[in-house]
């Protein structure tokens, strides 16, 4: 390198709306919609589980049918129905939120929530397939 030639920084390929170069430090903050959609996508699988466990807690605390709640299967049917309905409703709300974000702010804004949602769904399918294989092996 020639000592008389000053070193220059490479030209940025992206600029912000005001013309300033984009860097990791000056990148625009995500919108509220992006944050909400990403958090909802991250909670896609576990939020229904938490709600189901809360439903189990309330059912066993109240014990409206006066059953032996020390048994693992106490209130199984109501809990399964409640968990399934909450899970489906949550999944629909998450997908609708990400679609709304994509329509309002564009495909780039929804990229991370779709990625997180896709990973959650993929891992869920892998868990289900593994459970089927394990059940086939153990005869369950």
Defining key terms:
140 residues; mainly alpha; elongated
Could you walk me through the main structural features you see in this protein, from its secondary elements to its overall organization?
The chain has 140 residues and is mainly alpha-helical. It has one domain. 64% of the residues lie in helices and 0% in strands. The chain is built from four helices and no strands. The longest helix is centred in the last third of the chain and has 32 residues, at 107-138. It is elongated.
Write the layout of secondary structure elements.
Layout: H1 32-42, H2 46-62, H3 76-105, H4 107-138
Helix pairs in contact: 1-3, 1-4, 2-3, 3-4
Q: What is the approximate shape?
A: elongated
The secondary structure category is: mainly alpha
Helix and strand sequence: HHHH
Total of domains? 1
**How much is the radius of gyration in Å?**
24 Å
Characterize the main sheet: none
Poorly predicted sequence stretches spanning 5 or more consecutive residues: none
Percentage of β-strand residues? under 5%
**Total E-strand runs:** 0
Mean pLDDT, as a whole number?
83
Q: What helical percentage do the residues reach? A: 55-70%
SS summary, helix count? 4
Spatial gap, N to C terminus: 71 Å
């Amino acid at each position: 390198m020639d000592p008389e030639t000053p070193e220059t920084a490479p030209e940025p390929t992206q600029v912000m709306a005001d013309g300033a170069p984009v860097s990791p430090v000056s990148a625009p903050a995500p919108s509220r919609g992006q944050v909400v959609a990403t958090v909802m996508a991250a909670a896609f699988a576990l939020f229904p589980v938490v709600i189901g466990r809360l439903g189990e807690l309330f059912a066993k605390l109240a014990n409206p049918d006066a059953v032996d709640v020390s048994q693992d299967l106490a209130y199984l049917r109501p809990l399964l129905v409640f968990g399934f309905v909450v899970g489906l409703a949550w999944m629909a709300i998450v997908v609708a939120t990400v679609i709304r974000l994509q329509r309002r702010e564009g495909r780039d804004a929804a990229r991370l929530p779709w990625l997180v949602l896709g990973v959650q769904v993929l891992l869920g399918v892998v868990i289900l397939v593994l459970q089927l294989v394990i059940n086939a092996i153990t005869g369950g």
